[in-house]
Design goal:
The chain is an alpha+beta fold and 173 residues long. Helix content is 17%, strand content 29%.
């Protein structure tokens, strides 16, 4: 079982994104083609399957976190494309592994402080022991007391994959 809690896009944000995305554009659902299959869905943290109803939307994860926390990330606020199911899918169910954990894949583990500013990051080439690889990266990130949350992103396109928050004192992530 994983030690850190992975956070997909939350249900309230998904309801909003299925109407208008964080760039103010209307959601335009479509049926997934072979070209879409395998790409990560950020609502349930699973790969897209052929024929699923999906949407590609602009999402600003740090902006949404900052609004809830009263932080002002300034220029660190960014938005980018993510795939979501076009309708409610039931969300993410935590599993034995971290999502999108293909050995050899490159990820950026980007750290943010309580103000919403980048507080460092690292490149992670996911090892064969994928869980240990992610947990080492998260242990390293949260070893810095100023780190409030971590975003895991794809290196190739910079796309947001999922968020991990600082673990509660004495508890899991």
């Amino acid at each position: 079982m994983t030690r850190y809690t992975v956070l997909p896009i939350d249900a309230a944000a998904l309801r909003e994104l299925r109407t208008a995305d964080d760039a103010g554009r209307s959601c335009v659902p479509y049926t997934a083609t072979r070209d879409d299959t395998g790409s990560p869905l950020r609502c349930c943290l699973s790969p897209i399957g052929l024929g699923e109803r999906i949407a590609l939307v602009s999402y600003a994860p740090l902006r949404r976190w900052a609004a809830a926390e009263g932080a002002l990330p300034g220029a660190y606020d960014e938005q980018g494309p993510v795939f979501i199911h076009a309708e409610d899918c039931g969300g993410f169910t935590s599993g034995e592994n971290y999502p999108f954990d293909r050995p050899g894949a490159l990820r950026t583990v980007r750290r943010y402080d309580a103000r919403g500013r980048i507080a460092g990051g690292r490149l992670l080439e996911i090892p064969v022991d994928t869980t240990a690889g992610f947990e080492t990266a998260f242990d390293d990130a949260f070893g810095d007391p100023d780190v409030a949350l971590v975003h895991v992103r794809a290196v190739e396109y910079g796309c947001f994959h999922f968020e991990v928050r600082r673990p509660a004192a004495g508890g899991r992530g």
